[in-house]
Design a protein that fits this description.
This protein has 254 residues and is mainly beta. Helix content is 10%, strand content 50%. It has an eight-stranded mixed beta sheet with strand order 16-17-18-19-1-22-21-20. A four-stranded antiparallel beta sheet has the order 2-3-4-5, with no helix packed on it. The longest helix has 18 residues. The chain is globular, with a radius of gyration of 19 Å. It binds decylamine-N,N-dimethyl-N-oxide and calcium ion. Decylamine-N,N-dimethyl-N-oxide binds next to loops.
Length: 254
């Protein structure tokens, strides 16, 4: 009996280790470099109809802006009410939806004139936003991604994000890229490639050399900001207070 149990244990243990694979790590190649406002404490980044839209954080300095890619010029900008610390943004129809860090409030803005049209509430922290065709996805600093109704921002479910069974916390700026959710992990040089169905991290993108080269000295100047141009299959990344924004191609894991 004991022997049988031991045998079973051994079988399971060796079986499991045979299945535990290392998550692939993708490299990158910089294909273009653009200027980026070093005053922008970047919290959200999207590509929309030929322009970048970016949200910035910090108390009394949070903005949502339309930015020209080529020279980084801020074409339009709206300030959040000064008590709010701005976080991620996403577009829905002709609106931009934005989060705040710890005030449990988000806003909807008309994209055409940056008029604020509505506010909504949520429990916990607001970090990143992205979307697919039917839902909005929100990170909150934990290892979960909330799935929301884009019109009401009511929560539908949560995705538990894991890498080899371990939760991946501090998921930050998000971007939906070809059926995956890309997420900056706060205070690291990596982007997680998440399968939205299972929450599993299918791969990592290691941007350490880029971060070393591009990030200004401050501890807060982390990699944050991923935007995907679906029409031209371009992936953009930047960071908080970085003076550059990069278009990168992913390299297959070696
Ligand atoms: N979050 O964006 C990761 C959610 C929060 C970032 C908080 C960083 C605080 C920095 C304060 C710097 C003051 C100069
Ligand atoms: Ca994004």
């Amino acid at each position: 009996m004991i022997r049988a149990a031991l045998l079973l244990f051994l079988l399971v243990a060796t079986g499991c280790s045979a299945f535990a694979r290392e998550t692939p790590v993708y490299g990158y190649k910089v294909v273009a470099t653009y200027p980026h406002d070093p005053g922008a404490f970047t919290q959200g980044l999207i590509w929309l109809d030929g322009k970048l839209y970016e949200s910035t954080g910090l108390n009394r300095r949070s903005t949502i802006r339309e930015v020209r890619l080529e020279d980084g010029k801020v074409l339009r900008s709206v300030s959040l009410p000064s008590r709010y610390f701005g976080e991620g943004i996403v577009d829905w129809g002709d609106e931009i939806i934005s989060l705040t860090w710890q005030h449990e409030i988000g806003f909807r803005w008309k994209r055409g004139d940056f008029q604020q049209t509505a506010a909504f509430h949520y429990p916990g922290e607001g970090w990143g936003l992205t979307r697919d065709k039917s839902h909005v996805y929100m990170s909150d600093g934990t290892a979960q991604i909330r799935v929301l109704d884009p019109l009401t921002m009511a929560e539908r479910k949560r995705i538990d994000v894991t890498d080899n069974g371990q939760p991946v916390a501090s998921l930050n700026e998000l971007e939906w890229v070809k059926g995956e959710i890309f997420a900056n992990v706060w205070m690291t040089t990596r982007i997680a490639r998440i399968d939205p169905k299972s929450g599993r991290v299918k791969g990592w993108i290691d941007l350490a050399p880029l971060v070393r080269e591009a990030a200004p000295g401050s501890d807060d100047a982390v990699l944050n900001g991923i935007a995907y141009d679906e029409a031209r299959d371009r992936l953009f990344v930047t960071g908080k207070n970085w003076s550059k924004l990069f278009e990168i191609d992913l390299l297959q894991p070696s």
